[in-house]
Amino acid sequence: MSISAAFFAQAQDVSVIRNTVDVYSGTPMMGSAKFNAMAGANGALGGDANSLLTNPAGLGVAISGEISGTLSVAGNKNSSTWAGSTIDYNKTKTDLGNVGGIIAFPLMTETAWKFINIGINYSNQSLDNYVESAGNSNMIYDFDVDKSSEFAGHAYNRYGHLSKMSFGVGANYNHNFYVGAGLNFLSTSIDQFDTAAFQSLQNNSMEYFSKQNTPFSERSSGFSASLGVIGKLSPNFRIGAALETPTFWTIDRDYNYYNDAYTGDGQGYENRKLTTPLKATVSAAFVASKNFSLNVDYTLGLTKPDYKVYGPAERELNDFFKDNYKNLSEVRVGAEYRVQQFRLRGGYSYISSPMDALTISSYNNAGVAGDQSYDNLILGDRNLLSFGIGYDFKSFYIDASYQNVTSKYSNPFLRGVLSDQVDSAYYSANNIVSSDAYAVSDVKNSRNNFFLTLGWKF
């Protein structure tokens, strides 16, 4: 606990930790409506281009060519509660969520190798997120002798997207064993803001402050590779295993800085190198008949995020993740039932919290600071429930699905240190706010996602 508290006493922005885990260490799992209806569980089933999201060996299962496009409608709701007040936020965004295609090449030979298939898959998901937390009239900040203000609220605002383009090849050996490999190219665009508001006790005017080194923009690119196998234990049972290398990220950031001893206010640039966790996935599937299938995937992170060290900031980040980051753990379960040409699908997914319990200094509702422990700081457990329907027109098909993703977490903000060695304070045009403790709101996040896929088999 002392290590955790010591880390949070440094200049690191909480958003760096959040984005490292939530954005860079995760990968887009937006597939087709079928894939999303089954909660992304297809590691031992395969059969289409979305196999590149879980197990590239699934490419080898396909016996015909296929191409599809998916429209996504992503709804995001945050309810942030602090100091007895709750502020809700809702946003809906429509985008191209997934495009995938596979070409099947039957091998007209006497060997047991039946198919060599090539697949391509593009996934895209929004990173937009806005959390606004209420103010607290018990928290008074004295700028000078005759000017005092009360804390009037805080806003965390992130815009952007995360995309993944994958290319892969899969092979079919005697319709009993499948092997595949894929290359993944990722890109991220983030624009982020961290703003605190204070209201004057003298004239009720509102003053807005930006945290040191914000707003900032990040443009990042990453690369990873994956390998996988699927084996049939019997006509009804399959098992699969896949390994995805760490993603090697290059992160370019432009940011605003304030109160520099030599240049005053200005704009800066930095480059970072990040290696995210190595991941392993094991899968099992039960195929009762052509009308029913069930798949279970379990993914485990085998390593931890690691920044290339250029100075104290990266060293502090690595120490924090070494001591407080819990390896990724995710379970996905999905099923499909066919009634002639109709398709009924459902799924469930659980992702564990990525952080150990942390102790930080935080304000209570009375505005008094003290040490408090949080078991879901920054990010919490996530539960996903999904279902979908589809209809097969022989050569063409149409699928639709719905996902509900929920999580609860504690959202720290406001802390900013100003000293000879550290500057993470909040700045307006005329004043500076520093705080030795955090304010922490309770956030309930609910995402309601809808997907529509049109596909063609050839």
Strand order of the largest sheet: 1-2-3-5-6-8-9-12-13-15-16-19-20-23
Shape by Cα distribution: elongated
Measured by DSSP, the beta-strand proportion falls in over 45%
- Radius of gyration, taken over Cα atoms and rounded to an integer in Å: 25 Å
Output the helix-strand order: HHHEEEEEEEEEEEEEEHEEEEEEEEE
Distance between the termini: 58 Å
**Which spans of ≥5 residues are poorly predicted at pLDDT below 50?**
1-11
Q: How many runs of DSSP E, i.e. beta strands?
A: 23
Task: Please summarize the sheet with the most strands.
Answer: 14 strands, antiparallel, barrel
> How many individual helices?
4
* Average pLDDT: 94
Top keywords for this entry?
about 450 residues, mainly beta, two-stranded antiparallel ribbon, 4 helices, about 10% helix
